[in-house]
Amino acid sequence: MSVKVGIEIHQMLDTKHKLFCNCPTELRRDGPHSEFRRWLRLARSELGELDPAAVFEYSKGKMFLYEAYFDSTCLVEMDEEPPHQLNPEALETAILVSLALNCKVVDEVHVMRKIVIDGSNTTGFQRTALIGLNGHVDVGGKKVPINTVCLEEDAARKMEEREREVVYRLDRLGIPLVEVTTAPVISNPEEAGLVALRIGQLLRMTGRVKRGLGTIRQDLNISVEGGARVEIKGVQELELIPRVVEYEVMRQKKLLEVGEELRKRGVGRGDLSTNVLDVSELFKDTSSRVARKALTSGGVALAVKLPGFARLLGVELQPGRRLGTEMADRARYWAEVGGIFHSDELPAYGISSEEVTAVRKALQCGELDAFVLVFEEKKRAIRALEAVVERAREALEGVPPETRGANPDGTTRFMRPMPGSARMYPETDIRPIPIETVMLERIRALIPEPPEVKYEKLVKVYGLNPEIAKRVLWSYRLDVFEKAVGEAGASPTVVASTLEGTLVELRRDGVPVHNITDEHLLELFKLLARGGLVKEAIPAVIKYLAENPDVEVEEAVKKLGLTPLSLEEAKEAVRRIVSRMSDVIKERGEAAFSTVMGATMRELRGRVDGGLLSKLVREEVLKVIKGSG
Length: 629
Hints:
Largest sheet: 11 strands, mixed
Number of helices: 20
Structural class: alpha+beta
Radius of gyration: 31 Å
Strand content: 15-25%
Distance between the termini: 78 Å
Low-confidence stretches: none
């Protein structure tokens, strides 16, 4: 069964100002200075059509609370003032990325509006502009087409979601992003990871993008043969991409199997009715806490029959997620209920076998029929079961086209219907920008050198062995390596082993290394280069910084007691330890060296260079041996 994967990478640019105003592009940690509320309405495309994703968001009836700052947001973010002309610094970077990806740059840049009414933009749309198209990137000998490179504004930050209101912060709104979209030619999870890594690496190599968690986001478009395209939003960690692809392929294959089984059972759309039955009376003496709470607060118990779905609602689609889970997702999003109960998982949760039998009898369920229960306020319960039935109807076709969100474990959840083509229309407040040939040639000279040139430099100039050179070349922190060696003057070997060895090992040990920023690492290597740290202390310092990310590197070194000893202090410490162990040395001679070295390392590790320490210990041990002779 063939698999098709396409990737969209959204990378935040490191510009001085936002895309359509002069506000700074820094995210704030302090509280907002002001706030205001908005309701967003649906807008039709130029052809008078409504986008299904926009209709879905509008149907929630949410109000939006926006948090703003007097010194880093302005009337543009509030949609009280037209956008300024497009940021030329951001445009130059987007052209640079397009050229580096072998794209044809457009002759004239036109800004478009993309309808988005989930509240993440005060205007009800996102501004975006096509910059490059028809490019490619080489990954493992394969030419992966780059369909488009766009320049767009980032969304506001979601801070909190309440029952009828969503809170957004405007500091991120308007920060420039480049969006790089590949063709759906990726055929397996590992390749998806490599393609995303290669594009992300190239973006960082320009030196013009922001760093850290949340500054790059990947969306995946995945389909399997016989299925439909599913968009997965918000994969923030590159390492998670192969697992997301693997789990989504697993989900779609299982859904196709479920659809085939339903057809074998002769289930059709007409069999799936939204006629719900009030079964509250059957649960008047229930032991289920969920049921009791709903019924005593004025709610009802509603049930709907799903003909032919017995033993299919419990089919595991992804680890820990079943077809019943997907129905519960739909119920939560369309009706905002706490959850559902289905017959494949009952009796459980305080619902007895007698109650299950009673519900089945009331619904006239046959052996192959399933049912779904909701305990909730009546209007919500009805809407929830209508969403469940709609998802059941989709199961007949196999894989429904939809937008899903990535979970931290690589599984996915329903977000909204797949957006259509009716969500784009021209931005009338911004004039088109012609792209001059002179500008293109000037920017072309800024393209980073290709990977094969960098590989030669890593081996011949920096002296790395070929294996570690390959790992550094494909590392997401390649530019950190170059800065640490070129600007900080740190040892290439130590920097490479830290980035590709120490960080990996600490991650495996459960240390939250995602908290380590590039600034942490560069300061660490600068301190190492000027003698303020020894390489043996690096793992301990990184671990401390990962667990205390707001601490400065030098402060961490001091708190850990890892300030390096001077040469004289080191010699004196070694003499003291050797003197303490002189009897062992006299008895065993040079064979005692490893024992003495171990004791010395336990006391001085991380404060004296390992090579120097070995030399000093050997000298002092030999002195004791000669004196005893």
